Amino acid sequence: MLKTRIVGVLIIKNGIVVQSLQFNRYLPVGRVAIAVEYLNRWGIDDIVLLDMDATPQGRSPNFEKIREYSRFCQVPLTVGGGVRSVKDMENLLHAGADRIALNASAIANPQLISEGARLFGKQCMVISIDVRRKTDGNYEVFSHSGTRPTGQSPEILARQLENLGAGEILLTSIDNDGMKQGFDLELVSRVAEAVDIPLVACGGAGHPGHLLEVCKLGVSGVAAGNFYHYTEHSVIVAKSYLHAAGINVRLDSFVTYDDCHFDSDGRVARISDETLEKLRFKAVPEEVI
Amino acid sequence: MKPRICIIDYGMGNTQSVGNAIQYLGVDYLISSRKEDILTSTALILPGVGAFAAAMDNLHRLELVDLLTDVVVGRGKPFLGICLGMQLLAKDSVELGLHSGLGWIEGHVIAFEPSHEVRIPHVGWNNCHIRKQEPLFRNLAEDAHFYFDHSFHLSCPHELVSATFDYGGHFVASVQKDNIFATQFHPEKSQRHGLRLLRNFLNFAASAPANTERENEPC
């Protein structure tokens, strides 16, 4: 059966990957091409690149940069930020993107989704929805990197977008983003029930257990950004943890996921000296295809 | 003859992604829709991220339909269709209205039945059940996983199917007929397994009769 996807989100600001905290503080992480290549090597299932500058600067995506970033990406690459026309989408697909993410432009101009779906198929159209919890406990969708309220509820908007031709929803909780306290489970389950298209939840992962909680809500994928930058062996640990808990995740052919033990922070526990001593002499050659 | 792969550029499809994978395997490629490139390359790859009708319109507009049919079906040039590139081989598709395809294989493209069990489109990594290991799935486990991303699927005669996948039922993951191969999944985006599959295709192409200067037997 279909596996739950472990998705890496890379937020790009001023040409570098940044750590985002609730969409208002950004800390530098590093070069985009390196981040893409490493996530790919660690066995991520899907990479989402979001250019935070394009829409505020009123420009199209930087196609030449996408070409450079995608060079060593052997997993699906979804690219968003500044996509305003079907020509932009076509150029992105020719530059190394496999799917297109829309946010502000989809909310301002829903026809763009239908038009994109007509040309590139709905499976290509990923709509990113950023949501804040209101003081009354309800939720509201924000656009333009979380700066503009739209007055729409995420469930209703998600269903409308599905009818227009969206093929996947990437749902981010702005409040939980970068807080490492777990996903907004209520938000995720509300939207998961509202739509029949795949849903990927993002925002708040700080421990592999957080990924597990959200996997149980029937999502198609779990996404994280910072979690993968700041945790050792992050993707492998996450998959190993989920695999041990019985979630169907993709296991790469040359990593051993079975022997991981975890401490209370969800990190890999130290292996005994005896085992390490044996491991020292085990060579694992990389496969040449 | 040095192998060179022509990735057909028909205005849609993740051409660069396919190019990146071919480049990773150390083989020359070009992304083109020009007749001489199609005629002189050792193998053709028809990538696909797109809707069926728009893709066929583009193939007609670029005058590629007769050319490709002649080169692939007539002269036996090795061919790999990916995702939509597989669906286009069918006689017709019901995606956004009924449209006719290239018709190289007996088959029809139909929608997944709406169901509460599975989400449509079918997006993500899924295991295949490989029925014909040779030549495309050589060195791959019988249940190797690949990346899928589609809302419609191909229905075709049993004997053409080389692998299936399970998503609330069994569906066609790949087909093969003589020199024509096609996969519903994206080998260029399936890491190790996908690269092995592409390597198998490149090996097949290098030793194909059409590339060893012999006239191919009529199909």
Trace the largest sheet of chain B across and list its strands: 2-1-3-4-13-12-11-8-9
Overall shape of chain B:
globular
Structural class of chain B: alpha/beta
Average pLDDT rating of chain B: 93
Strand content of chain B: 25-35%
Poorly predicted runs of chain A are none
Enter the CATH topology name of chain A.
TIM Barrel
- The largest sheet of chain A has its strands arranged as 1-4-5-6-7-10-11-12
**C-alpha termini separation of chain B:** 24 Å
- Tell me the helix content of chain A: 25-40%
Q: What is the terminal separation of chain A in angstroms?
A: 26 Å
> How big a fraction of the residues of chain A is strand?
15-25%
State the secondary-structure class of chain A. Answer: alpha/beta
**In the CATH hierarchy, what is the architecture of chain A at level 2?**
Alpha-Beta Barrel
Measured by residues with Cβ under 8 Å of the partner chain's Cβ, the largest interface is: A-B, 48 and 50 residues
Could you say how many structural domains of chain A there are in total? 1
Radius of gyration of chain B: 16 Å
Helix content class of chain B: 25-40%
* Biggest sheet character of chain A: 8 strands, parallel, barrel
Low-confidence stretches of chain B: 214-219
Average of the residue pLDDT scores of chain A: 91
